[in-house]
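[Structure tokenization] protein backbone as discrete codes
[Encoding] learned vocabulary of local backbone shapes
[Protein] chain in single-letter code, fold in tokens
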Amino acid sequence: MAVTVKASLGKTKYYTEVTAGENQIITDEPIDKGGQNKGFNPMEILATSLASCTAATLRMYIERKEWDVENINVEVELENFPLTKRAVFKRDISFEGILDDEQLKRLHTIADACPVHKILTNDIEILTKFS
């Protein structure tokens, strides 16, 4: 399944309107980088993709199993190391509910099966054209 997003940036430094279908978000850069800090920066959006996909994947599984979990909390820290061409995602997942060790072990496997996690841990190819 392909997903298409469109980003449009005018003359206002780094203030970018991004649309996907009927939905829209604003991205920007922090003030110290010349932006206005009016939205997530692109690195935050990347980390958001992993966090939100993980939470949704876990919720689907938990509901299917009918486990008693009120909230799923996913925190993702993304650190980029351009000189070594390495990025590290640190993902911290916690639950508000009653889960035993076996359930937690299973949920770890499910978290790693979220579609964004799979994309980020597989080969990635970016094809660019100018039109």
In short: Strands lie at 6-9, 16-20, 23-27, 69-81, 86-97.
